[in-house]
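Project outcomes to date are best conveyed with an example. Our students and postdoctoral researchers have been running inverse folding experiments weekly, and each run begins with a structure described purely in tokens. The record below, which covers 647 residues, was selected by the lab manager from last quarter's runs and is presented without edits.
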């Protein structure tokens, strides 16, 4: 197999090989669930007023993974309008959006049902892997399965989205493009200059965290399968300083029934191949939509290549993006907002994982016979012609791979109706577990500065928080998140707020304190835990001054081998100098635009009911990062988890 560069050999040396890796299925399931257990806040399906219990029908609660929220919403509305009857009584579907990982946890625990959160009768997870994980966990505990089988609702290939000009430089649409091509480009010090386009800078990849994202895990497996497409030849020095063609890989087209194995995951060359690609990742995250929204912002500024070269997403997201219908773009009047430069869906040769979303009528004690029959009626509708037409109308592929994919899956929308030439399914849970476990040795490490607003730390946050304060909620969330943070990370903790006491970060009276200096997490963990338990209180806000100092420090100490980021947690107020926020946004935007090779991302978490969410979104967007909303204080645990998934 081919190694991309000498860097690949170095990567191989970094990986932990030769260890006994075999686990029982029960252990594998436990690991996957631990890795994937909840990273985003749950939310009811949009348009809840449309799903108010009519009072005279059999209500069937449905739980769907967030990426299918809109299509399941549409299916439910259409079905409900039909007034379908079972045993002489109408059936009414009420969908809710809930991550697949959270569903496994709650279903396995017997579902702590409540009037506001009824236990589902039907489950639509992100892929069939989740049903296997749930049932294996139940079998391990000596309990019967809940989701043993169910028909497919839809399919969605996990693709590499690339701006069209960049895709054409790679040879699309005339030549197949695979992970080998991208790996060679990522390893070349000239970046896109190796293809005659130095203006696009280095190759930069966006992919969600495989430890918290189904799409991220599928992308990791795709990159691992992509190692099959390279051969072991010595890298030859370029003969032309101008445009240099990327070598065409020799492809052994793997069959669909040739699944990824644990031995392949730990093969030194495969491990090096994946590890080199990981070093091009700009940051991770819990949701790949982050990359699309930031891409769109860069597109509107003039050039999406300024932000990112490629991102791992589902095919349907590329279609929605190119149509200007991506929900997260948030046009207030709902009008389409197509980008200036469309994206192209690349189906990596022999390594395109196709996610199949099933419909599980749960064999659970809380599902009544009437609910079960109502759920079955909805499944029959969703998998029949009318339901599958609704699936196609949202840009997903129908359940049957031989069916017409629909009018949206076209080159005009950046997609190929024929799809991948050699699709791959997700491997068994034990293999997914091993791949995600080994990824922690391959991933790009982080250099993180946590900047915490300590203003009003001891202020109670309302009746629904049982007397707890900002201090209680924030420190508990950050303490827990430290245990999940990558062990290779370097971390610092600063606090800010007007009037804080203690030694400042620069030796004078200031609103910023360096509580824990930057250093390896494993060496700083105890110090960080102690510091979070003893945070100094303060009065007022000084967000602009503190963030400027933190951002400047990270720029000054930039480490090109790491993800460099600031995580700002707090309400985002600046009572002392509110106008300085504009200057800070401009400075961060300038750095983001002019220092492409030295990026520092500014992630923000708006905490508390008084959070300045607009200000915090502006700060994050200026650096090509993401802002998170924890204005509802009890959500802080899930929100901090989602933010930390970037690192």
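After processing, the design step wrote out the following sequence:
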């Amino acid at each position: 197999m081919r190694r991309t560069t000498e860097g690949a050999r170095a990567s191989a040396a970094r990986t932990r090989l030769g260890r006994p890796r075999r686990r029982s299925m029960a252990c594998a399931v436990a690991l996957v669930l631990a890795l994937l257990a909840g990273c985003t806040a749950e939310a009811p399906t949009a348009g809840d007023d449309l799903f108010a219990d009519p009072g005279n029908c059999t209500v069937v609660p449905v739980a769907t993974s967030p990426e299918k929220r809109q299509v399941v919403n549409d299916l439910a509305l259409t079905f409900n309008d039909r007034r379908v009857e079972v045993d002489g009584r109408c059936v009414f579907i009420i969908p809710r959006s809930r991550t697949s990982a959270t569903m496994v946890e709650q279903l396995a625990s017997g579902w702590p049902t409540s009037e506001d959160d009824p236990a589902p009768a039907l489950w639509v997870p992100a892929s069939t892997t989740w049903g296997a994980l749930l049932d294996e966990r139940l079998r391990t505990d000596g309990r019967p399965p809940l989701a043993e089988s169910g028909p497919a609702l839809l399919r969605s290939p996990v693709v590499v989205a690339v701006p069209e000009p960049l895709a054409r430089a790679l040879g699309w649409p005339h030549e197949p493009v695979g992970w080998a091509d991208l790996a060679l480009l990522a390893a070349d010090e000239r970046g896109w200059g190796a293809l005659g386009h130095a203006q696009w800078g280095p190759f930069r990849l966006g992919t969600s965290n495989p430890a918290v994202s189904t799409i991220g895990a599928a992308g990791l497996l795709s990159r691992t399968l992509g190692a099959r497409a390279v051969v072991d030849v010595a890298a030859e020095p370029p003969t032309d300083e101008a445009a240099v063609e990327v070598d065409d890989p020799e492809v052994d087209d793997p069959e669909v029934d040739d699944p990824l194995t644990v031995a392949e995951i730990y093969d030194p060359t495969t491990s090096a191949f994946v590890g080199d690609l990981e070093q091009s990742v700009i940051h991770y995250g819990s949701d790949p939509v982050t990359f699309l929204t930031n891409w769109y912002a860069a597109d509107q500024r003039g050039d999406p290549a300024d932000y990112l070269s490629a991102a791992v997403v589902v095919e349907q997201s590329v279609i929605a993006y190119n149509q200007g219908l991506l929900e997260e773009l948030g046009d207030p009047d709902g009008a389409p907002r197509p980008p200036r430069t469309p994206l192209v869906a690349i189906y990596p040769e022999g390594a395109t994982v196709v996610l199949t979303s099933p419909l599980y009528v749960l064999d659970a004690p809380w599902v009544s016979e009437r609910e079960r029959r109502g759920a079955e009626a909805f499944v029959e509708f969703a998998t029949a012609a009318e339901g599958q037409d609704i699936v196609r109308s949202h840009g997903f592929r129908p359940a049957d791979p031989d069916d017409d994919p629909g009018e949206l899956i076209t080159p005009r929308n950046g997609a190929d109706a024929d799809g991948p030439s050699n699709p791959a399914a997700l491997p068994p849970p034990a293999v997914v577990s091993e791949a995600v476990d080994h990824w922690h040795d391959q991933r790009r490490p982080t250099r993180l500065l946590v900047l915490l607003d300590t203003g009003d730390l001891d202020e109670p946050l309302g009746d629904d928080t049982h007397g707890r304060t900002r201090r209680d909620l924030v420190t508990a969330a950050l303490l827990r998140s430290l245990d999940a943070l990558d062990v290779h990370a370097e971390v610092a903790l600063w606090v800010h707020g007007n009037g804080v006491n203690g030694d400042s970060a620069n030796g004078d009276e200031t609103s910023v304190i360096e509580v824990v200096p930057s250093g390896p997490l494993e060496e700083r963990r105890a110090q960080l835990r102690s510091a979070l338990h003893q945070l100094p209180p303060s009065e007022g806000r000084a967000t602009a001054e503190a963030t400027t100092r933190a951002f400047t420090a990270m720029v000054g100490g930039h480490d090109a081998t790491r993800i460099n980021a600031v995580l700002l947690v707090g309400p985002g107020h600046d009572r002392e100098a509110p106008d300085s926020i504009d200057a800070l946004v401009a400075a961060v935007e300038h750095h983001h635009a002019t220092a492409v090779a030295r990026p520092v991302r500014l992630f923000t978490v708006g905490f508390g009911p008084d959070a300045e969410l607009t200000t915090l979104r502006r700060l994050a967007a200026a650096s090509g990062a993401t802002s998170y909303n924890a204005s509802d204080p009890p959500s802080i645990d899930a929100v901090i988890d989602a933010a930390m998934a970037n690192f």
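The CA atoms of residues 477 and 637 lie 5 Å apart. DSSP finds 21 helices and 19 strands in the chain. The training component of this project remains on track.
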